[in-house]
Structure formats: C-alpha cells, structure tokens
Specification:
four-stranded antiparallel β-sheet; about 130 residues; mainly beta; single chain
Amino acid sequence: MPELLRIISTYGAAVAQDAREEILQNVADWASPGIDEIVVLKKLGIYGAVTATFGLYKSRSVISEEGTECDATAFGNDWDALPDVNLVLKGGEKLKMFMTDSAADPAGITIAALGKVFKLSELRRRR
C-alpha cells in the first residue's frame, strides 16, 4: 500500500534579506525520493509573504521561473483549493525550490503537498 503524502510545512523562515537559498534541501524528504521510491504529487500549493519570490525545479527542468511571487492566500486544509500538478519524482530526482526574500524578517514559504510515495518493490508486485 503506498504511503499517503499530506504535508503542510513552512520552509526558509531563516533566509536572510535579499539572500537566495535552496529551501527544501535536507528538510523535505518527500522532495528527494530515495532510489527505491517514486513520489507522485497530485496537488502542490506554494504560499507566503508577497515579498518572497521563488523558483521551482525538477532536477534541471524549470517548473516555475525564478522570481515568481508567492500566493499570499491561506488555504487551510482545503485540498480542493490547491492547484493540480501531477508531478512525478523518480528515485534520485530532486524537487528544488530557491527562495529570495526582500523583507527584513522573512517568514518563509508554506508548501502544501498532496500525493503518494510508492516503493518500487510494491509496483513490481502489482504486475
């Protein structure tokens, strides 16, 4: 049975003013699946202060251009309000997010991710 991924977390709260920093590295295990895993993201919401901008990448592919403004709308637990992304991360691929905050007191970016984590051995058994 695949593991349900339902994460609401804030990243990058310690980013210094006008600094560009990769905020998912080493803190969001779902963004870097292990070699024996596949992560399927069905929905992904990115919210934060309007002073923050971000760039989102799947390995070397650009998902959202650097300098994209964060949505300042709160989403609560309304998963239907999040955009559909249908993003697949294979083992060894990384979802990277670079944040730049122009505020003196950066609050970080809140990310809501809804999906599943599959083990390759589970998928092989289903055949």
